[in-house]
Amino acid sequence: MKIADCQDLFSATLSITQIPAPEDTPVNRIAATILEMARAYENDGIVFRESGDPINALAACYYGFGWLHFGMASGFLSVTPAAGCPFAGLMEILPPLFRVKLEEKSHRYSRLLEAARSSVEAAPDFATMPHDFALRVLFTIGIYAWQGDQLLKSGTGEGALACFSYGHGWLDAGVAAGLFRVTANRDIFCV
Questions:
Q1: Does residue 76 contact residue 176 with C-beta atoms inside 8 Å?
Q2: CA-CA distance, 65 to 11, in Å (whole number)?
């Protein structure tokens, strides 16, 4: 998917996203934080793309989608009708002049996501549904980390960066929602 198309899909999805919880409730506040972060990364992605920085535009879009999809999967956010998938279709291949920066950023984001994953633990009591959901979130993040590593090994930096950014969005949103306790490297989380 072209970066511009991904951003259009992201903006369209955000425009139909709602917070189902009543105002002045803790659930509403968490949902508002998730939606605010997704919108902030929508804006960042647009600014990056318009300034000629497609690598950071790609990372911002997929990171924001991670926040948004966490919100949808957790029930904090509601999107009707269902929106498309940013991973559908072929990833845009950036021109050769971006290869070095893309390679460096993809490897750095792989390390960053691994550090973040090893710096959290499920916060809710193990006998509760929130604990089960926290484990599901960690599983989802693990899938995207693995897929990103496979893409990185095959030389597909664009897809790798998208996977790492998306996974980190899920993880940061989970921390913000209280599903995870940060045990190390607190500075790499949005809390």
A1: no
A2: 10
Q: Which residue in the block uniquely carries the two structure tokens 């369209």?
A: 12
Tell me phi and psi for residue 23, to 5 degrees. -60, 160
- Asked if residues 83 and 71 have their Cβ atoms less than 8 Å apart, the reply is no
- Claim: this prediction has a pTM higher than 0.85: yes
Each domain of the chain, given as residue ranges in start order, spans 3-87+98-188
182 DSSP 8-state letter: E
Measured in whole angstroms, the distance separating CA 21 from the mean position of its chain's CA atoms is 22
- Residues 111-156 pLDDT 10s: 999 999 999 999 999 999 999 999 999 999 999 999 999 999 999 9
What gap in Å lies between CA 138 and CA 140, rounded to an integer? 5
| CB of 184 closer than 8 Å to CB of 117 | no
User: Residue with structure tokens 């009708």?
Assistant: 81
pLDDT in tens, 2-52: 999 999 999 999 999 999 999 999 999 999 999 999 999 999 999 999 999
